[in-house]
Amino acid sequence: MRPEVDCRLCGLCDGRTNMVLPDGDPSSGIVLVGEAPGENEDLEGRPFVGRSGKILDGMLEDAGMDRRSILITNTVKCRPPGNRDPTHEEMAACRPFLESELHDARLVVGLGKSACRDLMGFEGKMAEIVNIPTTIRIGDRDVPFIPTYHPAATIYNKVSRAELRRTIGIIAEDYL
Ligand code: URA
To answer: Residue 51 C-alpha to ligand 1 middle, in angstroms?
Structure first.
């Protein structure tokens, strides 16, 4: 299930250049969920192509993985103005599309607090839940879920960088 090309289900449509739909291999069953498209993603129409994407790609490569072999998506498909966090209402409007992307997943990884808020209903600090596996309810299934740091949160923070690397190591070792 995909949004209509002229989707107006929430106010984010007003500022978008391109809608940013999932990228990669849906048949892998491994889905990384980020927060929202940023400026570069809005311009290119692909998720994680800017600075955060370069960090993510580098970590995947270091673990012997290629971004094309998994699915990468976001809680919302359009860029929030000024890169603010997406609101609960915006995430709810986009949720049916995200649910359909997660429908056949074997593993979902939440990158950062917006993804964890949307998918787990978690409102606390990422440090409390990072890399603690849990499950989330998608349709009538409990799907394995790993909460972790957003790549942008790892730029100036060695601890979060090590944790995100650990998450990617878990994917490579246990789910490929
Ligand atoms: N940050 C995100 O959360 N998603 C993107 O697609 C790019 C940056």
So the answer is: 9
Question: 3-state class of 135 per DSSP?
Answer: strand
Protein residues with CB under 6 Å of any ligand 1 atom:
34-38, 41, 47-48, 50, 52, 74
Q: Which atom of ligand 1 is nearest to the CA of 34?
A: 3
Torsion of CA 34, 28, 92, 143, to 10 degrees: -110
Cα 85 to Cα 147: distance, rounded to the nearest angstrom = 17
pLDDT in tens, 66-115: 999 999 999 999 999 999 999 999 999 999 999 999 999 999 999 999 99
Put simply, whether the predicted model's pTM sits higher than 0.85 gets the answer yes
Rg of the Cα atoms in the chain: 15
**Rounded to an integer, what distance in angstroms lies between the CA atom of residue 131 and that of residue 2?**
30
Task: Output the CA angle 136-113-44, nearest 5 degrees.
Answer: 100
3-state secondary structure of 31: strand
